[in-house]
Structure formats: structure tokens, C-alpha cells
Design goal:
The complex is a heterodimer of chains A (353) and B (564). Chain A is an alpha/beta fold and 353 residues long. Chain A contains 15 helices and nine strands. Chain B has 564 residues and is an all-alpha fold. Chain B has two domains: 247 residues, MetI-like (MetI-like fold, Orthogonal Bundle); 218 residues, MetI-like (MetI-like fold). In chain B, strands 1-2 form a two-stranded parallel sheet. The chains are: A alpha/beta (353), B mainly alpha (564).
């Protein structure tokens, strides 16, 4: 028995030693953070390779150090929520408006008053009180098999429920936030009941169970499994630019159709950001946000990520331009968050897996 | 019952109130409680209200979740037994060309994360993939003119999970076969049993605790899987948990779904325990000699070879080659600079977690052996559940208590000393490693338990009669006998942590990435080919421990050195 006692004593001793060292390190870190230059801590749902380059550029220009954690938006929001007032995060970045609204509803963001942000970002792409701001735009469009579909037959999202498309549509799961946001927008325009009918019609027209990502839907069209699909613009653009496998030829076999051009316009979502309520570096975070809508950053977003700039006067990438001008839905994006749970429930009832 | 316990526990340890190890008892109890917090946090959610989300679930998808998860478990359970047990016996007991290579090759699929094998096979077999394109081009067919299995389906998910998870069953049952005393097998043979009969009537039943241990790991991992089922559009329970949480914005209902999942697993585990009630699986003889391997010939040889090669081919070689091809194709596109740091981070985390898990696993299993009272057995059960909980749910279960602790201390310090301590543990590697331990400790515990369970209690008695203390018995008697199990436990956790994604994603500190995260981020952008290089590195990093694992197990047979 003596030996086990001895071990515990030793463990306890080690523990004390370690915690002493730990506190010393902590103190050092705290001391270091006081003397260091400006810093911004970001929780980002945008993947590292799609955001780090522009952040690095900002650091090079201003000397502001940027610390980054990437992850799923919902997980990051949960982390922010649980960490509470002591959360180190200053800025929350997401790739859809639904999550920004969720963060705002959970009381995790703070209102920001910035003339630059308000001047540059059109009012429908930001929160009316400055809780969040869109920094880039994407549209969810209908893509069609150029060989088998006459685009004159296409008109609106609503018309995808027309029985003439039976067995011809591919779409990914309703678990996907972009489908949820699109459906939420439709709920906002048409109400729950009409949208549920639409979802039922759409499900009845599916060529296969919802599965895969947006690129997979394009692959399925190219393979002849279906003729129409709903995809985000940057996925198609990414495939057209790709040098991998047969991505490019696959993407070239589909055409882009801008839906609802006679009516409200094509569905738009944003990637955006909000300053957290717990932010310790509020000023630096706002400056970074302002940089993200600057001409330089907006051009970068457009060229590298194939997203539509949120700032007027910046050209979209060549690929996006080649799909022509289009009319965008002007619905205030706040509406999408309000109707998100309704959308998910009606998709469940309609059997959209 | 008491008699039974007394039988298992070394004498002198049962009256623990008077025992001098009370301090360690308390320490171990505290440790178990600490580690149980995340699981208990999940259970705690049952008491909260979830605003009608449940009614909605019952009306719509709950049945689908239950059905798909049940089918998934059934399918994976049967497949891993088929893929794991017989090859383990074949490479242990028989000899055929290549059997020495297959011994370790059969473990290789363990190095491939389930989500990665799912991506690669989808890339190969999906409608737009090279296989189907080739079929269409060669025979000038259109989609729908020919039959082709649908990879993104429940069947596909079963296949993918089985292919990467069967090594658990293979490893543990092989270990059991190796440890079986030759006497039992010889007796069965002299009683007229054919090798086949000896396999089914003697070897498998004797290996049952090990096979079950492997199977339960597989089933728990299956239930916790999110990446594969989500990618394949299967409405499994985890899909439900995340959909409820994210889509319906109800983390309460999501946690309640997890709790339900846990209750179900607990029932399964208890049922299994009950079914083998008082049977014990110690070996009664210490007579080990080099296994006389049966030489296979003719169709038996062909059959055995095919049977053992197929799992390696489908579970490792095909996806591995595909990953290599993708890596070559995208070599110029990926950022290779960061790879060393990513690999270093991955390995460092995996090694730390593996060592801690091994230490705690042994501590807990041995404590239960010494004092199998209600508390220790209860703790063992609760701790054993971590493996079945999806990583994200565990992560939240870790975040809640850590953040609470940090914020409470911070508030107290502010109030009394006007000092803000901020977050001391949340968002550090300590929280992350803690989550790994909660999630993967069951792997270590099950493996150590399977090894220690085979050591007769009389061995402890012998040690005690020679004046050894509990710790000395563990170190000088148990450890040498079950060193294979110990290494297996550590390496399994190591490989598991290497592959782990969701908890790492949510709990890691700023500016800290691993190979799994890089892979996920690219795959999440639907750039599968570009994700291949980091995926390949996970696999390569996993292969080495996997081979060591297999090698050690081969040598772990007691009496391996004896020449006959």
C-alpha cells in the first residue's frame, strides 16, 4: 500500500509544481498581452484558406495581430455563448445570414456604429442596428443541363414544384443552411402553407434522395441523373476554375438560370460578421470590419472566392460576369432568420430529407 | 453476489473502510466524477423543457432516426463480425502464403477515418465518378440504363463504417486467440472436434469478452458517427441531434436526443453483461507453447486468402491509392508549408491523450478489480459511454463545466481582488485533451479490461501472499502479462485522436490546426481532391502505430519465446 500512497504524494507534488508553472506562464501571457500591439480575435465559420490570406494582408499593412479559430458556425456560437463575458472572441464571421441572426438573438453581438460600414453596405445586407454586416454576397440559382433543358421553360423557384419536372431535379439535404435560408425567404414572401405545398411538390420531383453537396448536384446533372439543381454561385464558379479531374468540363455542361427575374429576384445570402458582446478589442475589430469592405478586400473576395462584392463599383469575377446581369431579391436578410425554424419544420413535414 | 465479489477481489482489499488506501479511493472517486461531468451534463438536459420540438420530431422524423440507426448498427455489427473474427483466427491458427503480411495488414483500415473513406469511395463510385463514367463511355449508356449500387445510401454507410471499424474486432479477437492456452484447443481436438468446430465451439466462445469488447467499440463509434451518415444522407440519430440543434435551434432537444441514445446504449451494455452473467473467462492453465499452425492447402488456402485479402483491399488499398492519386493531381494547389506544423500538432495531441488515457484506464479498471462496489461499477458504466457520444456533444459537455468554472473563478477574483482571471482552461489544449479523454477513455478501459479480465484472481492472491501491495501486483504481475493489451489501448487511443475532428474543431485554441481540421475544411468546400494530401498524412501517421500494434500483439502471446 505504501507504494500507492507514495505515488499519490508524488502526483500531488507534481500537480502543485505544474500549477505554479502554469500560473507563472499565465502571468507572463497576461503581461505580454498588455504590452503587445493591437489584436483581434476571430471565431470564423469561413475556412482558414478562404480568409487567412486577406487577414495576413491586413496584419502586414497595420501591424494588428489577428488570432483565428475556424469551425462550424453553430459550434462557434455555442462556444461564444458558454464562454460568456470572458470569451476572447472579438469578431464572429459566418458564411450565411441565418447564423448571424442566431448569434444576435442569443445576445452575443453588440451594435456597431460605423459610417464607413453604413455607407458601403446596402441596407438590406446589414442589421438595422449594426449588430451584423454582410461582407460578400452569393446567390442560390437554378442550374440546368444545357443539352436537355430549354431555359425558356424555367421561370421561378416556385415553378420547380411543377409536375413537368417529375424525376428531374437534384437538391442537397434540407439540413444544409442554404436550403433553409432559401426556404425561409420563400416563407417570408409566400407564407408557411404555400411554401410547404411548394416543398412537397419539389420533393415529388426529385430524381434521388437529397444527398451530397452543391458540387455533387452539378456532377449528377452532368452524369444524366437529373436535369435541374439548386446551387450556390461560387461552387459552380469554383468548378469552372478548377484544374482537378473533370471538374471544368462537368461544370461547363450546365447553364445558370437566374430565377424570379420578373418578380422579386434571385435569392441572395451573405457571408458576414458581427462584433461580439464580449469583445475586448472593439475598436480594432471594427477597423478590421471596415477593411473587409474596402476596395482592396472586396476585390480579393470577388477574385479569389468568386463571391459578389457587397461594395458598389467593384467588378465581380469574370466567370460571374459571364452569367449576365441579374435582379437580386431585396428582402431584408433579417427575415431569413425569423423564418428559419419554420422553414426547417415545413421541410421536415414535406419529407425533404 | 458477495461470494462472487470476494472471489474476484484479492483478500484484504474488500474491507476498504479500514484499508490504508482510503486516500487513493477518494482520489479515484473524484477523478471518476470529474471525467463523468460531460456525460452527466448531457443527461442533465433531460430535465429541461424544449418547447414542442419533441412533438414535431415525433410527428415527422423520430421514427426515421430510430429505424436508420438500428439498421446501421445491425448492418455494421454483423459485417464487422464477419470481417473481423474469422480472419483473426485464420492468421493466428493457420499458415498460408501471405498470412504473415496479412497479420498486420488487416489492421491498416484503422488508420483511415470514416469520413475520409466515405469521401474517397464517393469520388470513385458516384454518378459522376470515374467508374460510372467509364461504364457509360465504354458501353455508350446513359444514366439509368444500367444498374450500379448507390454509394450514398444506408447500405453505403454500413459498408464504409464496417470497412474502417472491423479492425477493432479483428485486433481484440486476435489478441484473445493468441492468449488462449493451447491446452483448451488440444482438448477440443482430442475430443474429436474438427478445426472448424473448434473455432465455433471453443475458440470463439472463449474469446467472447474480447469480441464483444471490440463489437461494442464499433457500435458506439457507429452511433457517434456524424460525418459519414450526414454525407450519405442517412437519417441516423446523430443527424437528428444536429438537425434539431442547428436547424430548429434547440440545443436542449438535441441534448435530450443524445441522452436517449445513451440510455439505449446503456441498456445494450447491461443486457450483454447479464447474458454472460457469472461466466468467467480466465484461463485455468498456464501452459502456453508456440501455436502449432495448421497449414492450409487447395481450396481452403484460396478461400482463406481471398477472405483475408478482401477487407484489406476494400478497407485500405483502394482508398489509399485513390488518395495518393488525388494528392499527385493537386500537389501544386495545396499549401504544403503548414503541413509540418499540422502534423506536429496532430501527433502531439494524440500522444498526450493516449498516455493519459492509458494511465487512467489502468487506474480505473484496476480499482474496480480491487473494489468492485456499486460506485466503481457505476463509474465504469458512465465513463464507458463517452465513446458513443458524438464528438460535438462531448465538446459542449466539456465547454459547459469548464466555462462555468472559469467564469465563476473570474467573478470571485474580480469581486474580491479586482483581478480578472479570464478563461483559464476554456479554449486551451487542456480542455481539448480532457474532451479526448472523456471520448476515448472507454477504448482504453475496454481494452485493458479485456486483458485484465483474463488474469486469474488467484494470481493476485499469489502476489499478495508474497507480500506485494496492490500497486506492486499491478506493476509486477499484471503489467507483464497484459503488456499487449496496454500497448493496444494506448495505440488505439492514439489513432482515434489522430482522426478525431468535431471536438478538436470546437475546442481548440486560437491559431491551432491539425491535419484532420485541414482535411475537413477543404472537404467542406467540396474540394475532395485537394483535401487528399492532408487526409493521406493522417493515414500515414496512423499506419506506423497500427503496424507497431499488430507486431506487438503477435509477440504478446505468453510463451511466445518458448521453442517447442
Amino acid at each position: 500500500m505504501g507504494s500507492s500512497r507514495f505515488t499519490i504524494k508524488k502526483v500531488a507534488k507534481d500537480l502543485v509544481k505544474n500549477s505554479l508553472i502554469g500560473s507563472a506562464v499565465l502571468l507572463l501571457i497576461t503581461a505580454a498581452s498588455i504590452t503587445a500591439a493591437a489584436e483581434v480575435n476571430i471565431y470564423s465559420a469561413r475556412e482558414e484558406n478562404l480568409i487567412k490570406p486577406i487577414l495576413d494582408r491586413y496584419t502586414a499593412q497595420t501591424g494588428t495581430k489577428i488570432n483565428l479559430v475556424t469551425g462550424g458556425a453553430d459550434e462557434l456560437i455555442k462556444r461564444l455563448e458558454l464562454e460568456g463575458v470572458n470569451s476572447p472572441a472579438d469578431l464572429l464571421l459566418t458564411v450565411d445570414v441565418g447564423r448571424l441572426l442566431r448569434a444576435k438573438d442569443a445576445d452575443l453581438l453588440q451594435p456597431v456604429d460605423s459610417d464607413i460600414l453604413e455607407d458601403v453596405i446596402p441596407v438590406q445586407y446589414r442589421d438595422s442596428n449594426g449588430y451584423w454586416f454582410g461582407v460578400s454576397l452569393r446567390s442560390r440559382v437554378i442550374v440546368y443541363d444545357k443539352a436537355r433543358v430549354d431555359p425558356a421553360q424555367l421561370s421561378t423557384y416556385e415553378a420547380l414544384a411543377d409536375p413537368k419536372w417529375k424525376g428531374k431535379i437534384c437538391v442537397r439535404s434540407s439540413t444544409n443552411i442554404y436550403n433553409q435560408s432559401l426556404t425561409a425567404a420563400m416563407v417570408s414572401h409566400n407564407g408557411v402553407e404555400v411554401t410547404e405545398q411548394w416543398a412537397r411538390g419539389l420533393v415529388a420531383n426529385l430524381a434521388r434522395n437529397p444527398q451530397g453537396g452543391d458540387r455533387d448536384q452539378i456532377n449528377a446533372i452532368a452524369a444524366g441523373q437529373c436535369e435541374l439543381a439548386l446551387v450556390n454561385t461560387y461552387y459552380l464558379a469554383g468548378m469552372l476554375k478548377s484544374t482537378v479531374g473533370n471538374d471544368k468540363s462537368t461544370a461547363e455542361s450546365v447553364g445558370v438560370f437566374w430565377p424570379n427575374q420578373q418578380g422579386r429576384g434571385a435569392h441572395i445570402n451573405i457571408s458576414g460578421a458581427g462584433v461580439t458582446k464580449s469583445a475586448k478589442n472593439t475598436e480594432a475589430a471594427i477597423e478590421l470590419l471596415e477593411f473587409m469592405v474596402s476596395e482592396e478586400a472586396q476585390q480579393w473576395y470577388a477574385d479569389v472566392n468568386d463571391e459578389f462584392p457587397v461594395r458598389a463599383g467593384i467588378a465581380a469575377s469574370e466567370i460571374l460576369q459571364s452569367w449576365g446581369e441579374f435582379k437580386a431579391d431585396n428582402i431584408p436578410l433579417e427575415q431569413l432568420g425569423i423564418h428559419n425554424a419554420d422553414a426547417v419544420r415545413l421541410m421536415d413535414r414535406a419529407g425533404w430529407k | 453476489m458477495n461470494k462472487l465479489l470476494a472471489d474476484r477481489a484479492p483478500r484484504g482489499a474488500s474491507s476498504f473502510l479500514t484499508s490504508p488506501v482510503r486516500l487513493s479511493t477518494i482520489a479515484i472517486a473524484a477523478l471518476c466524477l470529474l471525467l463523468s461531468i460531460p456525460v452527466l451534463t448531457v443527461f442533465w438536459s433531460i430535465t429541461n423543457s424544449s418547447d414542442g420540438v419533441w412533438q414535431h420530431l415525433v410527428d415527422t422524423l423520430l421514427f426515421d432516426y430510430v429505424r436508420d440507426s438500428a439498421l446501421l448498427m445491425l448492418g455494421v455489427g454483423v459485417s464487422v463480425l464477419v470481417l473481423g473474427v474469422l480472419p483473426a483466427w485464420l492468421v493466428t491458427m493457420t499458415k498460408f502464403p501471405g498470412s504473415r503480411i496479412l497479420e498486420w495488414a488487416l489492421v491498416l483500415p484503422l488508420a483511415i477515418p470514416a469520413y475520409i473513406i466515405a469521401y474517397t469511395y464517393t469520388g470513385l463510385l458516384d454518378v459522376g465518378g470515374p467508374m460510372q463514367v467509364m461504364i457509360r463511355d465504354t458501353f455508350e449508356l446513359r444514366y439509368g440504363d444500367y444498374w450500379f449500387p448507390q454509394i450514398r445510401s444506408l447500405g453505403g454507410a454500413i459498408a464504409m463504417l464496417s470497412l474502417v471499424l472491423y479492425p477493432y474486432v479483428y485486433l481484440l479477437s486476435r489478441m484473445a486467440f493468441l492468449e488462449q492456452s493451447i491446452c483448451v484447443l488440444e482438448v477440443s481436438r482430442t475430443l474429436g472436434a474438427s478445426p472448424t468446430k473448434a473455432f465455433f465451439r471453443v475458440a470463439v466462445p472463449l474469446a467472447r469478452p474480447a469480441i464483444i469488447a471490440g463489437l461494442s467499440l464499433v457500435l458506439m463509434e457507429t452511433l457517434a458517427d456524424y460525418g459519414t451518415v450526414q454525407y450519405f444522407g442517412v437519417s441516423a440519430f446523430t443527424t437528428g441531434i444536429f438537425r434539431t440543434w442547428f436547424g430548429l435551434g434547440s440545443s436542449v432537444a438535441a441534448a435530450q436526443l443524445s441522452a436517449l441514445l445513451l440510455l439505449f446504449i446503456m441498456t445494450l451494455v447491461l443486457a450483454e453483461q447479464w447474458s454472460r452473467r457469472q461466466s468467467r473467462y480466465h484461463h485455468t492453465s498456464n501452459k502456453y507453447s508456440r501455436l502449432p499452425k495448421i497449414k492450409l492447402r487447395g481450396w481452403k488456402l484460396t478461400g482463406a486468402l481471398i477472405y483475408c485479402v478482401l477487407p484489406v483491399l476494400a478497407g485500405f488499398l483502394i482508398p489509399f491509392v485513390q488518395l495518393c492519386l488525388w494528392t499527385l493531381e493537386t500537389w501544386d494547389l495545396v499549401d504544403r508549408q503548414g503541413f509540418i506544423v499540422l502534423a506536429y500538432n496532430s501527433l502531439r495531441l494524440a500522444a498526450t491523450a493516449a498516455l493519459i488515457a492509458l494511465f487512467l484506464g489502468v487506474l480505473i479498471v484496476y480499482s474496480r478489480r480491487l473494489r468492485p462496489d456499486m460506485f466503481m461499477r457505476g463509474a465504469f458504466r458512465i465513463l464507458g459511454l463517452g465513446y458513443a457520444i458524438p464528438g460535438t456533444v462531448i465538446a459542449v459537455g466539456v465547454l459547459i463545466p469548464f466555462a462555468w468554472f472559469d467564469n465563476t473563478i473570474d467573478a470571485w477574483m474580480r469581486e474580491n481582488f479586482s483581478i480578472s482571471t479570464g478563461l483559464m482552461f476554456s479554449g486551451t489544449l487542456i480542455a481539448l485533451v480532457f474532451a479526448y479523454i472523456v471520448r476515448f477513455l472507454p477504448v482504453a478501459m475496454n481494452t485493458v479490461d479485456a486483458g485484465m479480465g483474463k488474469i486469474k484472481p488467484s494470481m493476485d492472491d499469489v502476489g499478495r501472499s508474497m507480500g506485494l501491495g496492490s500497486f506492486a501486483i499491478l506493476r509486477r504481475i499484471h503489467a507483464p502479462i497484459m503488456r499487449g493489451s496496454l500497448l493496444t489501448a494506448a495505440l488505439l487511443v492514439f489513432v482515434d485522436v489522430l482522426k478525431e475532428l468535431p471536438a478538436t474543431l470546437i475546442l481548440r485554441p486560437f491559431n491551432f490546426n491539425t491535419l484532420a481540421i485541414r482535411t475537413y475544411e477543404l472537404a467542406n468546400q467540396e474540394r475532395l481532391a485537394e483535401a487528399a494530401s492532408s487526409a493521406l498524412m493522417i493515414v500515414l501517421a496512423g499506419i506506423i502505430p497500427v503496424i507497431i500494434l499488430s507486431y506487438t500483439i503477435s509477440r504478446s502471446r505468453p510463451g511466445n519465446d518458448i521453442r517447442t
